[in-house]
Specification:
This protein has 9 helices and 9 strands. It has 370 residues and is α/β, with parallel strands linked by helices. A hairpin with a 4-residue loop joins strand 8 and strand 9. Bound molecules: zinc ion.
Length: 370
């Protein structure tokens, strides 16, 4: 009995320390079980997406999509408080992978070179925050939590993390210690968007790092793929459906880095090329991955147009053109109040149009009535 117990403990310990490439499927299942609005909206996504793609066959006519990103670093130890340059390396990797400028694209087998996609999606660290103020696009929060799980505490200030910026206008990425070997997870899109929408990545795997074989920032590439509605290439079932026609069916996920061709004709005959194990939506090592396909691109562009229409905003990437905001957040200070002739108003004045000038350059016109 004692031997069995020890064996059981050892087995449990192995399970606990094994690396889990991605928690998105489990997390999405939990959202569907606990949030009826998300469950209802998510059930419609595949039909809506196929309809959008059918109505928009030529994606190359579209303009470049610019996605402003805020990276929330939530740290307990100094090691977890990753540097600005490590964060910037991750943004560079996202831009390379989503625009097919990744140097390892030459490793895509020649049979798939013609369907490898330049998705024309650019990411930037946001230069304008939700209040219209200038920002680095990085927030840093010290926490007493030594690690986080998929319960989304990291996304809430009240629970040791930090609240999201407007989920429909920014890609929120939280970087923290996910403990237990989990690399990252994301929230797939739908017409319902909640305050936990975004991507979480373990600090060891964000950007160029020292934690091989997940040291080339492909965890974020994979999770942002989920966030833009991509599924795993094996469709999360044996020879499952990933809703994309140009990725071959495959039995299950792949690890490490197989040699091409791998597992030929496993799910269908006439598939001598086997698994597309180098797709960003498989589980192989970072150095093994190198493409999204045109079918995956169509699904991501459809997701942005249908479910994240307020997201693409070049002004938030370039700064400068800060729009007047209606926000009343306390971080924006009232500088002075003037009348329409520009005269300072010191006393309470009623029934006269007044201009409230704020520290971020925004102006509000108000009339105080008795
Ligand atoms: Zn995944």
């Amino acid at each position: 009995m004692k031997k069995i117990l020890i064996l059981l403990l050892v087995t449990l310990n192995l399970l606990a320390t094994a690396q889990e490439r991605c928690g998105t499927v489990a997390h999405t299942k939990s959202m569907i079980e606990n949030i009826p609005e998300y469950a209802a909206a998510r059930a419609k996504v595949n039909a809506q997406t196929n309809e959008w793609i059918n109505n928009n066959p030529d994606l190359n006519q579209k303009v470049t999509i610019h996605i402003p990103v805020v990276v929330h670093v939530v740290w307990n130890t100094n090691q977890e408080n990753i540097s600005d340059s490590q964060i910037e390396s991750q943004i560079d990797i996202l831009n390379a992978d989503f625009n097919r400028t990744n140097v390892d694209k030459i490793n895509t087998p020649s049979v798939w070179q013609s369907i490898a996609a330049d998705c024309d999606i650019e990411f930037c660290l946001a230069k304008v925050d939700p209040n219209g103020n200038t920002t680095t696009g990085i927030t840093r929060t010290q926490t007493t939590y030594t690690s986080f799980t998929m319960n989304n505490d990291v996304k809430e200030t009240a629970n040791g993390g930090i609240d999201a910026w407007d989920n429909d206008r920014y890609l929120n990425i939280w970087v923290c210690d996910l403990g237990s070997g989990l690399l990252g997870y994301a929230t797939p899109p739908s017409n319902w968007i909640g305050s936990t929408d975004g991507v979480v990545i373990g600090y060891k795997y964000f950007g160029n790092s020292n934690f091989a074989p997940y040291n080339k920032g492909r965890t974020a590439t994979h999770e942002v793929g989920h966030w833009l509605n991509l599924e795993h290439v094996w469709g999360d079932n044996f020879c499952g459906n990933d809703q994309v026609s140009d990725t071959p069916s495959q039995e299950q996920e792949n690890y490490s880095c197989p040699s091409f061709p791998y597992n030929a004709n496993s799910c269908q005959t006439n598939n001598a090329n086997g698994d597309m194990f180098m797709n960003f939506m498989d589980y192989t090592n970072d150095a093994c991955m190198n493409l999204f396909t045109n079918g995956q691109k169509a699904r991501m562009i459809a997701a942005i147009n249908q479910y994240r229409p307020n997201l693409s905003d070049i002004n938030k990437c370039e700064g400068g053109n800060v729009s007047i905001t209606e926000s009343t957040n306390s971080s924006k200070k009232l500088l002075k109040i003037v009348d329409v002739l520009g005269r300072d108003i010191k006393e309470k004045t009623t029934n006269t149009p007044l201009l409230y000038i704020y520290s971020d350059g925004s102006v509000k016109k108000k009339i105080i009535t008795e």
